[in-house]
Write a structure and sequence with these properties.
heterodimer, A: 128 residues, mainly alpha, 2 domains, two-stranded antiparallel ribbon, 6 helices, 2 strands, 5% strand, B: 360 residues, Fumarate Reductase Cytochrome B subunit
């Protein structure tokens, strides 16, 4: 090779950067998040929508509700089952899901998501 | 090739690449194949292919400096020379390479030749043309930021730079006002810029006649592939959501060699994963290999020191020569007999041969 030393060094640096996820995770045991439901949430069985919708799209629902409540004053949501909910994070959502650290944060920390709910809303007080 | 055929061909290939995982996962439930086997194969092709390409380039001799410079070269100390554009040592070369790799300086010098007919005759102009450079810069940096943002799926715990990038990328909170249909406040700037830049680069290709003429399916295909990749990503983030914790579990499984395919990941994710697998597998065989090749650009990474250092061609064939001295040695006696002049006289030769004979 011509200028082999420089080329090999460059190649190793490049490969190292691209393989960094393999190197970084090597030997680390990671655990998938397991959000816990409170007894009250378990008892209720259904949320405002089905579980699949809530796991994937709850942020969109909250975003839409926030706009509807704050800008249009529409405070009530009628679910497909016919049940009416009061749109409020603190009054409705957190009544069941009062365990923020075991429910919300479990996945949010895993995914590195920092929702700005708590810039305005008061995080629920949890019993240790 | 006709540009419409090129575009159609590339478009059809990309559509097929979208349909393969779609059918494979939605109809045949081949989640392990598309979630684990294909990504591993693609990574293997990428890494082996890239190493092979770089080693191949390394084995090609670059015997002479190619002083394609845009500046005065170093000659006499009192003549000012261009330290970066025409460097004489490694320091200048490193700075020139940094400009090239990070800021695409060669592209910045792009000009457009324009031929116009004016009232008083034809006119030739070299137009200042920075849009290609701007779109290229926008595309490459957006892609880099998007790639680095994806490290939140690749690493656990998530390193700090990912959070910084996410914050900066979403700080305008575009979802609140200009693009409120996207259902989340932090709409990433780079998502929009990537699509914008790609669209521009595609339109530019078909809008400028000369560029259209030289464009091949190999030019349209990567554009369409990355457009499809970006589109599926945007769809997945803002519209057709998938369970991203499950996605991260899958990604971490790949990177720790303990592959798992969690339940309940939507098909759109497998399409996205298949497209990126195809993209990285395509890298070593296509123009995309400039990712590694840019570092080996001979016109950029060689110091312009031809006046100071002799560069010997390594592939010069070892020609067998018969010098005049050897010739005379062989035929001296015959030459003297024929009356030809010789440089060394025979008496001297005898002495020398005796001496060498003693040595032997």
């Amino acid at each position: 090779m011509y200028d082999g030393g420089k080329i090999i060094v460059g190649l190793i640096i490049g490969l190292g950067l691209l393989l960094s996820p393999f190197l970084y995770n090597a030997g680390k045991a990671t655990k998938a998040p397991e959000p816990q439901l409170t007894p009250k949430a378990k008892e209720a069985k259904v949320c405002v929508a089905n579980t699949n919708f809530m796991t994937t799209k709850h942020m969109q629902l909250l975003d839409r509700w926030r706009d509807e409540v704050v800008r249009e004053g529409k405070r009530y949501y009628k679910s497909p089952e016919g049940k009416v909910y009061y749109k409020s994070l603190q009054v409705t959502c957190l009544r069941c899901h009062s365990n923020k650290t075991k429910f919300c944060d479990e996945c949010h920390n895993y995914m590195g998501v920092e929702p700005f709910c708590w810039e305005c809303h008061i995080a629920p007080k949890e019993k240790e | 090739m006709n540009f419409i055929i090129s575009i159609l061909f590339s478009g059809i290939v990309v559509s097929v690449l979208v349909l393969i995982p779609w059918v494979g996962v939605a109809a045949f439930d081949l989640r392990f194949l598309f979630g684990v086997v294909v990504p591993y194969l693609a990574m293997a092709v990428f890494f082996i292919g890239m190493v092979a390409r770089v080693i191949g380039w390394g084995r090609s001799p670059v015997p002479f400096r190619i002083p394609t410079t845009a500046g005065q070269q170093f000659s006499l100390p009192w003549i000012k020379y261009s330290k970066i554009e025409s460097p004489k040592g490694n320091g200048g070369v490193i700075i020139r390479m940094l400009f090239e790799v990070l800021l695409f300086r060669s592209l910045f010098r792009n000009t457009r030749l324009e031929y116009r007919r004016l009232a008083n005759g034809p006119k030739l102009d070299y137009e200042w043309e920075k849009w290609l450079w701007l779109a290229a810069l926008m595309f490459h940096y957006s892609f880099l930021v998007i790639f680095l943002r994806h490290f939140r799926f690749f690493m656990e715990p998530i390193p700090g730079f990912v959070h910084i990038l996410e914050k900066l990328d979403g700080f305008l909170q575009l979802g609140v006002l200009p693009v409120s249909g996207l259902n989340v406040p932090s709409v990433f700037l780079t998502d929009m810029l990537l699509m914008l830049a790609l669209t521009y680069l595609f339109l530019r290709r078909i809008y400028i006649p000369q560029t259209r003429y030289i464009s091949l399916p190999a030019d349209y295909f990567p554009l369409f592939l990355i457009l499809a990749l970006g589109l599926t990503g945007i769809l997945m983030r803002y519209f057709i959501r998938v369970d991203i914790t499950a996605v991260k579990t899958l990604a971490l499984g790949l990177f720790t060699f303990k592959p798992t395919v969690p339940e309940g990941i939507g098909v759109i994710f497998f399409i996205h994963l298949f497209l990126i697998s195809m993209l990285i597998a395509y890298f070593p065989f296509s123009k995309l290999v400039h990712m590694a090749g840019v570092f080996l650009s001979p016109t950029r990474n060689l110091a312009n020191n031809s006046r100071m250092k002799r560069h010997i061609n390594p592939w010069d064939y070892p020609v067998k020569v018969h010098t005049y001295e050897e010739y005379e040695e062989e035929f001296r006696e015959l030459m003297i007999q024929a009356g030809l002049p010789v440089e060394k006289q025979p008496e001297k030769v005898e002495e020398q041969s005796e001496e060498t004979g003693e040595k032997e």
